[in-house]
Amino acid sequence: MRKQNISYQLLKNYIAIFLITTVITILVIIALFCMNRLGSKDIIYNQLTAAKLMQNDYQRIDTSVINDVGGSLQVVNSNYEVIHSIGNNPFTSQQISVKEFTDFLMNTAANKDMITVEYNEQEHFWLIVSLPIQVKMTGSFHWNSDSPMQDHTLQMLGFIGLGYLLILILSTMIYAKITAFSFIKPLDQLSAAVEKVKNGDYSARVQVGGNREFSQLEQAFNHMAEVIQIQTSLKEQSENNRKNLILDISHDLKNPLTSIMGYAELELKEQMSGRIEHLEFAKIIYENSIRANVLIQDLFELSRMESPEFRLHVTTDDFSEYLREEMIHMLPELEAAGLIPDFVIEPEEIILQFDKKRMNRVFSNLLYNAIAYQEQGSTFQVVLEKVNDGAKLTFINYGQSSALNPAGSGLGLLIVQKIIAAHGGTVQLNTQDNRFEIMIGLNRQI
């Protein structure tokens, strides 16, 4: 089923409103006409005021019409005595006080009836007339059927009525068009922006303005497009990083595997001249096997950390004491590699929440990086400082080092970064002259 556009739907709505308004207007006019016709025959309402009815002899006042409409009439002399009363008397006694009479006059506007009061200066009395609220009118419409202008009046009323209908129809159509345009313009803008996003242009934004609802829709759409753009950019960056990582890993694995294959082939062909060559080749094969195994383990560890099931197993402990123990374990390997260790560890306790197993991996990766790329005689410094919200750990290599421009896959440092990030910390890498520095910030709580 074909859906109606919004302009057609709004036009139908306004036509319905126009018809309803027209019917109500006609009914109101007819009702007012009938009421005024009846009123002009039965009661001349503006003649029923105290001023109009006032006579020096109040006994001669015609009260029949007042009785017919359920009203009342009272006469109060200068001594505040009710000397004449017709209908419902608002006073409780014949003799009233000045205060009672004053309160009555002050509250006439709030009374449920229409009350008019007039004072006769010659005879010195007040005339009070009360009428029910339904006949509280200041004038009336009178229709004179004998007037010679009757036909002309009817013709004028016809023209006025027709003009009223034409103006109402024209204004309704114009208003419908204007209102429809106010809806269609922002919707067209949103539709065009959605089409751009659908075609891959995530930079599309809208600025529809208008009322609050369209402004909210504009903000929601722009926020959605921005999030999609950021996510897409991160996804592309991640994909590029993944491709580069695969290339780097392939390159790093190629070298040790090529060495293993070459020397293993020589062993099979028995081209070595003696036992020393056998041992040398076996050593080379073993060392390259370790390199390849380290790369494979790093790749496996990275895959585990990127899995949604990855969790830290944290404990709360003194990080200073923990680092001292780890540095003691690292000393033999550093000395064997010809590096000079320099440990500067905060003597005070630094209580942190951390995963000891993952932190061990951080230190082993950084140690392997220093041994692999640092020349003998270089200084390997570790500094632990206490800061307000946790601790700052710095690893510094001094001396000539290929680590300043490492050609490896970078898996070890990437794993370090992910472990520290999982602890809520940050990793910064700085290289200046012969100084290769890695700063790690850790928080007290994860």
Automatic annotation (TrEMBL):
UniProt domain HAMP: residue ranges: 181-233
Record's GO cellular component terms: plasma membrane
Pfam families reported in the protein's UniProt record: HAMP, HATPase_c, HisKA
Domain named Histidine kinase: residues: 248-446
Main location: membrane
Membrane topology: Multi-pass membrane protein
One Gene Ontology molecular-function label: ATP binding
Membrane-traversing stretches: 14-35, 156-176
Domain of life of the source: Bacteria
Localization of this protein: Cell membrane
EC annotation from Swiss-Prot or TrEMBL: 2.7.13.3
Keyword Membrane: yes
Catalytic activity line of the entry: ATP + protein L-histidine = ADP + protein N-phospho-L-histidine
Keywords: ATP-binding, Cell membrane, Kinase, Membrane, Nucleotide-binding, Phosphoprotein, Transferase, Transmembrane, Transmembrane helix, Two-component regulatory system
PANTHER family in the record: SENSOR HISTIDINE KINASE CPXA
Name of the molecule in the record: histidine kinase
Species of provenance: Paenibacillus odorifer
